[in-house]
Amino acid sequence: MLMYALIGLCLVLLGIAGLQFTYLFHIERLYKQRRLHMHKLERRCFALSKRLEVAELYITDRDTPVESVQPEDSWADVIEEC
Prior knowledge:
- By secondary structure, this protein is mainly α.
- It is about 90% helix and about 0% strand.
- The chain starts with a helix and ends with a helix.
């Protein structure tokens, strides 16, 4: 009778070890997916930073003619220059 209990205990321990390995593989796969996602987000952030720099330069270039307007200039001349 003790032999059956020991065989049952061994099978339970084997099942627990199998579940732990399955969970370990699952966690490893999630880690790889998160790492790929982080890499994708870093590339996206770099691209958006470049677009932001270009947009800021565009805005500063667009603001320059308005700031350079003298009070004696007419708006028709300013619009014509743009």
